[in-house]
Amino acid sequence: MTRSSPTEIYDLRGLKCPLPVLKTRRRLQNLKAGDRIWVETSDPLAVIDIPHFCEEAGHLLVETTKIAGGNRFLIEKS
Fold first, then answer.
1. What is the CATH number for 30?
2. Strands (E), the chain
3. Predicted pLDDT at 2
4. Where in the sequence numbering do the catalytic residues fall?
């Protein structure tokens, strides 16, 4: 299986818990298994919520990066 390059950045900055997780879940439904997406958040709780969501849903959290004003998560759909 070839993985698509993570070119899309899903900007969820400015949204508070639980919206980043809910919107990420909805966006991942439109992707194929193996597709990757960057998710950017400014909610400080996202560093807990996004990894927990990925673990619960079976998605792979490839990378977490601190960015100005928040965090960026690279998620691979299961």
1. 3.30.110.40
2. 9-11, 36-41, 60-67, 70-76
3. 47
4. 17
By residue range, what is the domain housing residue 70?
9-76
Give the start-end residues of each E strand in 2-51: 9-11, 36-41
For the chain, the domain total comes to 1
DSSP 64: E
Task: With respect to residue 4, please indicate whether it lies within any of the assigned structural domains.
Answer: no
Partnered with residue 10 across adjacent β-strands are 39
- What sign does the dihedral 56-62-66-70 (CA atoms) show? negative
- One pLDDT digit (tens) per residue for the chain, 78 residues: 445 555 689 999 999 999 999 999 999 999 999 999 999 999 999 999 999 999 999 999 999 999 999 999 999 999
Q: Considering the domain boundaries, does residue 2 fall inside one?
A: no
